[in-house]
Amino acid sequence: MIKPTLLCSALVTALGLGSFAHADVKLGFIGGFTGPIESLAPPIFSGAQLAVQQINQQGGILNGQTLTLLSADTTCTDASAAINAADRMINTEKVTAIVGALCSGATIAAANNVAVPAGVVMVSPASTSPAIAEINDNDLVFRTTPSDSYQGEVLANLLLSKGINEIVVTFVNNDYGQGLSNAFSSVFEAGGGSIAANLAHEDGKADYRSELGSLASSGVDTLLVLAYADTSGETILRQAYESGNFTQYIGADGMVGDRLVGAVGADVLEGMIATRPGKPDIPGSELFSEAAAAAGFDPNSVFASQAYDAAFLLALAIEKNGSADREGLSAALRSVALPPGEVILPGEWEKAVELLKAGQDINYEGAAGSQDFDERGNVPGIIEEMVVRDGAFTTVGLIE
């Protein structure tokens, strides 16, 4: 006869094991929900949420478990906040992997201090600094957006092709701004362009008139601002216009947001040129755009498609790995992202699961591109040329 205490113990153990077996599989999302990209973050998060929603609607992950996406705020610019966000996701919430961070400095801080020591894969949809590729990461840090080494080159050549040969530059004094400024400057000057002044600025100040005065003293009226739309970028553009010293404004991905146009003035920024990582004209991009529109967010939002790809790829890697364990996930991620294998497009979760269960290889071709990671976790990507027209950033063309 089984004693009641032993019976209760056995039941508790069985229930506990059953609960564990059907526990949610967790992904973390760390991003700048407050701070200088506050207006850009929500659709990026929506991109990742869309991938998770589709997966759960198509039977879930690892034999029917639910995939969940937990989030934490890095503030974008506060390294300690980024470290705390990663620590909560990894050590408290016990996520398998992380989508994020968004801002480059946040990704570097989170990776070096938490994720890499814990053996956790991170896939950033928005960290573009060349410094990301220099992290001693044990093949744990990836990104689904191209490096600013490429965006800077594209922006420089774009301006030169338009006959814009002389400019002044101000960049936010962090990993993102410095990396993009360096990449841009070397190509622009090598191509015959002249940078009359190139000044770093600190984010979050209320007054940049001193910096703008130094830039304006060169007599050049074309201003390139490499900063964030919600903080220094907005303030600098507004004060630059008020100074009357500049007539042409240029930016990069951190400046591309219609909130910026509304805050500074559509008439002020009409004709502003910018670049950002974009979506190529491929089947995956179209599928994502349709699903995003149905989900209620703008599929053309900066980094939204890259966030979708990051979340979908991590889920595919977990499925390939056969468990929610962190060990082996990096190799599994490369396996599902790179050829050879049956092509998997955005939304084709059921198809992917069936192929993986049959022991076949898959090759994810994403919403933002092929996502073929190189040895440093970078992807080639594509750059969009943007121009402000009629109060909004409008895509002019794609540059590969």
From TrEMBL:
UniProt entry tagged with the keyword Oxidoreductase: no
Keyword Signal among record annotations: yes
Leader sequence residues: 1-23
Lineage top rank: taxon: Bacteria
Gene Ontology biological-process annotations: amino acid transport
Keywords per UniProt: Amino-acid transport, Signal, Transport
Annotated Leucine-binding protein domain residues: 25-337
Protein family per UniProt: Belongs to the leucine-binding protein family.
Name this polypeptide is given: Leucine-, isoleucine-, valine-, threonine-, and alanine-binding protein
Organism expressing this protein natively: Nitrincola nitratireducens
Encoding gene, per UniProt annotation: braC
